[in-house]
Prior knowledge:
The complex is a heterodimer. By secondary structure, chain A is an all-alpha fold. Chain A has 28 helices and 2 strands. In chain B, strands 1, 2, 3, 4, 5, 6, 7, 8 and 9 form a 9-stranded mixed β-sheet that branches. Chain B is 46% helix and 14% strand. In chain B, helix 2 links the parallel strand 1 and strand 2 (72-76). Chains A and B meet through helix 16, helix 20, helix 22, helix 26 and helix 27 of A and helix 1, helix 2, strand 2, helix 3 and helix 8 of B.
Amino acid sequence: MSTSPANNAALEDRSAAPFEALNAGSRAGLVQRLLNSKAIWPVFLLILCLPTLLALGSVLASLFNLDTETLAHLLEHLLPAALGNTLLLVFGTATCSAVVGVALAWLTAVCDFPLRRFFSWALLLPMAIPGYVMAFAFVGLFEFSGPVQSTLRSWFGSSSWFPDVYSFGGVTIVMSLVLYPYVYLIARNAFQTQGRRSIEAGQSLGLSPVKSFFRVSLPMARPWIVAGVLLVVMETLADFGTVATFNYDTLTTLIYKSWFSLFSLPAALQVASVLLLAVVVIMVIERRSRAAQRYSQSQHVSLASSRFVLSGKRRWLAVLFCTLVFLFAFVMPSLRLLSWAMPNLVSDLNSHFFGYIWSTLSLATFATALIAVLALLLAYGARINQSLPTKFAVRISTLGYALPGTVLAIGLFAPISMINHWLQDAGIPSSWLQGTFLIMLMAYGVRFMAVAYSPIENNYLRITPSIDDAAHSLGLTGLQVLKRVHLPIVRRGILTAMVLVFVDVMKELPITLMTRPFGFNTLAVRVFELSSEGLWQRAALPALAIMLVGLIPVMLLIRKTDQND
Amino acid sequence: MKRTTGGLIVTLTAVLFATVLVGCGKQADEPSQKAQLEGAAETKPLIVYSSRAEHLIQPVFELYTQQTGTEIQFITDKAGVLIERLKQEGDSTSADVFITVDAGNLGYAAAEGLLLPLQSPVLEANVPAHLRDEQNRWTGLSLRARTIVYSTERVVPEELSSYEALGDESLEGFLCLRTSKKVYNQSLVAMLIAEHGEEKTQKIVEAWVNNLAVAPLSNDTKVMEAIVAGQCDVGVVNSYYFGRLKAKSADLPLALFWPNQAAKEDAASGVHVNISGAGVLKHSKQAAAAQEFVEWMASDDAQAIFGGVNQEYPINPAIAIDPEVKSWGEFKASEQPLSQAFELQPAAVKLMDRAGYH
């Protein structure tokens, strides 16, 4: 029981090795040899990142044709304020999400207190709430004309002391409430795979839970936390719906204004390029800072026996903290949505509606499977071939998440149309490509690769090079190492990635809108259709359904990862 | 145990995907099967790109299919995105008709060379000239009035007169506006520029900003809610949002005021109106059928529901207005050509930015 699964797998496979060698001559063997050779990976990964490269290329190409008139206007009247707002928001949201996410992850992964099992999955649920839906529910409750301030006025006569909802504070709270689960999920995975050795070491040195957190768990989980925060940063930079509800101007607002109001797509793409540049800088800094460190931990043993059992005041503080976050991030918006959905519940819950659920579910499932596999191959390729082309391919593949969805969608559409024109010239009907699920899935892959890649890559840090060496010395080659040795160790990372991608695809809007076939509606599309017309009450039902469907993978994940506890 | 779970997931995924594909294939096949059955080439479906929401256009499309047998397939997205998509698709597009709200968006699509100039006696007969493009590349299909809303508890209508007068000192601290990022406000200001020129309009907008009780709100409903809650007394909204709020609670202390109705020059321009409208796409493979469809949407049958489903006004002044909408009062609408909404929109946006209206 104390042997790691990796070693187990490697030992089991020793007998299989000679058999594989016999196969080498056959045709299947040729393919396998090709896949096993390290040289093939840069080529494969470069092909994998090609769609992203094309999309980013069509965004960056705008820089060759500067719309100086529009840019000058933006620069003079809007850019300074928008840039300041963006930096503040990113900093505020990243900090709040990191603090809340890490604290909750550590409590539910390492400690023991009442309702811990419930909170460990319940605290993930806010992730399934689209940011702008949360914003609308939050603003509706706490603004001047909302029920909270109205009640306060009826009690005290005035609510002028109540903080203004339409403010930096308001946006930051809402953004953090929907984005902390990214940090929570990935950090939790880190704490769970740190194993009990590290905690036991701390305990044997007489460290209290809090000290053990700061001295042992936190430093060891650093790359995971940073990866989670990086996703939050990218999501914040790309957000439009939430900031629009607060009328809080950011760089994304400028992109939309240039495009839709000033009718200058070039200026919009030029601002987007600035955004992209900022993300690249952040990523480079992050890479540099983690380069020198090792986080391998092959011992992967259940935490159950060495959890910190919180006692006394601490125990109830932990419960209180989790409850508060859960109340604000989930119960409050759900009740608000529920109260809106009730009047139309009977008429809107028709066969069409179940159709939306079905298409959402099937789309998200398939996209998730596909993206998880690609991300795994990306992480594996990057591990066995650390050449410049692979590094380049990995960085490019994960950049799609940083752009506002609409910009990425239009960036992707340019190469798609080009191929479409070629196809048509070659006499192949245009419907062959456009409006098919192929394009849709490819676009999701471009957008969400970062989300899937981060947790998987982080769990790869758990595999020491010596494990690979051992596997090779036992006769395992190439993909067998991936299957028999890596897969069991990075399993949690893959599951984490799948949940993140599933929920993100479900919420995704611009790409779905642009690439869907005629008559194909998802829940997110319904929310968009109704809320864009200001019909929030009727948009509540599909929004609630997104949350409920999002529950499925979250429950599966927690059951899978906590089954040993 | 692990292996069976993995196998299960793979199988499930495969089944799901297969179902989706089959489902999709079925959808794609249905119209063509129908066409084969009826044996007529005419029933090829028309394809519409629309930024008007699905629940507002679908009843109209269904009526058309019912009357003519022609199927309508459509996708919805934001107007700017659809225009860009059409530009990129070029002559390989399968779309026939473009439907959107706001004259600015229609003008943009026309300026990008996406729309076909139509020769249509039907449109000329049914749609007033200022609500159409000069070359008939687009036509209005419903009319939306952007007007003043006020608190019946704290304001008497005599205090109000025009959009321009919303900047009067007497209203300092009493005005609520929606954000200038919404196209409705952009076209309102564009039309003010058309009437008064940039310099004077900027003074008007600066005076509005000076009168604001709270920072601009994110939508029209919020403006009305703020007035009801006592945060401000006067605002500017599209009339159908007022209708929607009234439908939920009829006794709200709110009323509409129709500005710029004076008989004399000053403040006589009429209520600012915008449109939802449509055009036939230049690269449509069945432009004649598409034109027929657009003409039909401007005809009596379609007009009875096109604007009505959203409590808007019919584009054709001869068509009866919904009784409830009529009860909000009759008014003189501005007759400035709406094509200016596109030409002046960038100027209007920049002007509002300069005036500090965000």
